[in-house]
Amino acid sequence: MGGGKKKQSLKQMTKPKAPKDQKQKDKPGAFPTAKKTLGLTMPDINNKNVIEELKGLKVLTPSVVASRYNIRLSLANSFLKELENRKMIEYVSGGKNLKIYKRKE
After folding, report:
1. CATH code for the structural domain at 48-103
2. What is the pTM of this model?
């Protein structure tokens, strides 16, 4: 239960520790990973392309919408709620964490 930090061997204690960034620089052909910035603006609900793209999806969840439009999950939640308020989609099922919607036909 818990315990403590494992005791290092003599070989591990004498070996110099390199920072993690240093290890990545030493590798040949290693490229620094670029940070992805997620969009902070909601997709335009009135745009025909957005509506057509949503029609192609069988099930709408916040995670699907967030990955499709490269936006944050909270923004995808509010986007789906706005579509539900406009009667473009309807709530099917879900709980506290996951909500599932489908488009109205």
Report:
1. 1.10.10.10
2. 0.61
